[in-house]
Amino acid sequence: MAQQMVGLTGFGGYIPRLRLQRKSIVQANAWVAPNFLGKGKGERSMANWDEDSVTMAVEAARDLLGPDDDRSHVDALYFGSTTMPFKDRLNSGIISAALTLDERVRAIDVASTQRAGTSALMQALSAVRGGEVKNALVLASDHRKTKAVTAQELDFGDGAAALSVGTENIIAAYLGGASLTLDFVDHFRGDTEEFDYNWEERWIRDEGFAKIVPRAVKAALENSSVSAEEIKHFVLPCAFGDKFVQQLAKRSGIAPEAARDTLAANCGETGVAHSLVMLVHTLQTEAKPGDKVLLLHFGGGCDALVFEVTENLSTQASKRGITGSLRNRVEETNYMKFLTFNGLIEWERGMRAEQDKKTALTTLYRNEDMLMGLVGGRCTETGVVQFPRSRISVNPNKHTVDTQEPYKFAEKKAKILSWSADFLSFSMNPPNHYGMVVFEEGGRIMMDFTDVEVGTVDSGMEVKLVFRIKEFDEMRGFRRYFWKAVPVAASETKSQTGQAAE
Amino acid sequence: MAAGIKDKVAILGMGCSKFGERWDAGPEELMVEAYLEAMQDAGVEPTQIDAAWFSTHIDEIGTGKGGTPLSLALRLPNIAVTRVENFCAGGSEALRGAVYAVASGAADIALALGVEKLKDTGYGGLPVGNMGTLIPQWAPSGSAPGNFAQLASAYRAKHGVSKEDLKRAIAHVSVKSHANGAKNPKAHLRNTVTEEQVMGAPMIAEPLGLFDCCGVSDGAAAAIVTTPEIARALGKKDIVTVKAMQLSVSNGLESQHNSWDGSYFHTARIAAKKAYKEAGIDNPREQVSMMEVHDCFSITELVTMEDLFISPEGGAVKDVMDGFYDSDGKVPCQIDGGLKCFGHPIGASGLRMAYEMYLQLQGRAGERQLANPRIGLTHNLGGAPASNVCSVTIVGAYGA
Lengths: 502, 400
Prior knowledge:
Number of strands of chain B: 11
CATH superfamily of the largest domain in chain B: Thiolase/Chalcone synthase
Strand content of chain B: 15-25%
Structural class of chain B: alpha/beta
CATH architecture of the largest domain in chain B: 3-Layer(aba) Sandwich
Number of helices of chain A: 13
CATH topology of the largest domain in chain B: Peroxisomal Thiolase, Chain A, domain 1
Oligomer: heterodimer
Radius of gyration of chain A: 23 Å
CATH superfamily of the largest domain in chain A: Thiolase/Chalcone synthase
Shape of chain A: globular
Largest sheet of chain A: 9 strands, mixed
């Protein structure tokens, strides 16, 4: 009996909308690092202050899953990152709670290497092929931390990608793959360190990429019985330039023009996420049914996976993915803001920021679906929807008791009723916008806004909801998450409506 | 509805400290300042006080919790002291406790005192505090101006008022209060300002600028209440009595149910209706002589004019611009400067409002005395528009 086909069944992507202009970085640093002036081209993605690898992974997953309340089909979640916010607290557990996945989901964090995303994907493919898992969600995300005045701060970006793995409605069938494991230390980050320590680039390029990648390619092609000439898309995150990637492809017998865009110009390398980010981008742009894709990620060796795109690819046309994320961009020219958001500047935040942000973990767990999943209540008797859920209903006409069932708000349509832009309260990105958000199908929440274009907010504006960091508890190294409203510009609302009509 | 307390309780004496940045005084000194004035006015001895109600809001930087801070500061004769706290409406709550004690016959003479020492925080504006362990995990980490400012966006959307027109109307609210406060020696802010100054001030929380926000002040205020009969027996003339005391508290409708549009105070309308009924007032625009309302922010005062049924709905902008609430208008409002300029020591504010009504009704308001007022209304709010407590108290000449 032939082995059951497994493969990718869907994708999602998320790149933060802020794009830091590299020119701003190199100009600010020219006094100390004139050698970087030549790298001042293009832009890199930059997470907002309230984003981390977990929140970005949630956004990519939501793009993949769509707005349906029922997500019970997801029975495994693999999260790859080397910038997870917690060393010991299941980061994929936070994501699972935010996505309101079933508690029986198998959630696993995959870390410690740049190929954590592809390794997570390989684990998911194996689990599905083995039959223990039916629908796995693979998320890869990185919020990359670098010192100021480094090549890395110019090369890197922040972002996330999501893939689902299953046996039905496959958009890209998995043909086989290989992993090479070598303790090649191009960079490392010690247990107590905040930043990477990097070895010489020329050695990494010539002794690392140039020698290790082709061996992984060869093994993967053998394992999948695919010839090098058949590969239409050579997907490899690499900061050494397009020409070098093309040469690498050629060295493996793959057409140089198969080398796919590393998104260096308009995104930057998003770490663990980047192979998946590039794959999603490829699936949204150049990939056609029948094409064979080689997905690679270098790091402590190299992962290589071979896929064949199917006719089902068209089912993903409505996804934002990476192309949609790249379109939704706001130019950021303030390098100081980047440094501040990334904790690289000690700045006076004022006494209001001294407030203790200790989180009662008992309270958090007692209200887990409310706080993490934005789940409120719906009265089964009157149909009145409310947030938060309560034993006695808020319905002014009938205060029914113990009639509420869980009701998910995160994907519902909502508008701004009232708002203000507050310069008094502490904010990492003043003015602090917040207001009353009213849901079309009922319910309202007074909540923080984020990703705001100052000066454009008004009552009646549509919002979408995003899972973000609410506050940092710097005293204890904890961070609180909750949902925030992003005002959607009228122009964006129109284009969304246009897409829906197509 | 219950018979109510109309004319059952008289104000025997009142006192109020100087409000402001009282670097010279802690909460004890502020309490004593208000208390001694009230005792002198009432003409009674400490041993004649049967019970006391004590209001303070932010105990972390003020007096600490409990009833002991009042008893210790005033050396009360081991009588009952109940601490009340109901956000910024605590002062009215202390008065309500004392008034109800007298009305019930449980006490012949009762003391209400409110105090707040805010200027020990090290920064401007109100102190930031936590609300339990759940709310901080999801509610916006905003500020009072940011919460009240939202009234403006919803009011504009509902009534189709332009940004500029509303900004000018709320500026006039502050200009009027500054003009009044300038005449009050106990007020925190005693400078006059122009509409242009108000409108050009730095933004605090859009659309509220610096002059749209009330003073953050230290201060204390006190009232001694008794029955009209005892007041007369003590030789008092021109007796001021309590006509109504109502409090309405949000139950989540505004914050959780889509029937509230965000442009008004649901509780204020309920408290006002009940208070008018208790006081026997059926046409407030004509019958109320003067008001002290909770003008924590200019926009709050503007929408409150409608919530108290003085201005018609959507008509407050016109009334404000017509000078209806100015000191020479039909219903003078914030004649003592209001929270805006007299200042807002949270736990004391409700009693400070009553103090001005009491002085006006007795003809003792000096330079700012109004001609023959008969009925005074105080409106004391705590919390934020979407979730609050609202007190409406009506006082007047005995028999009025």
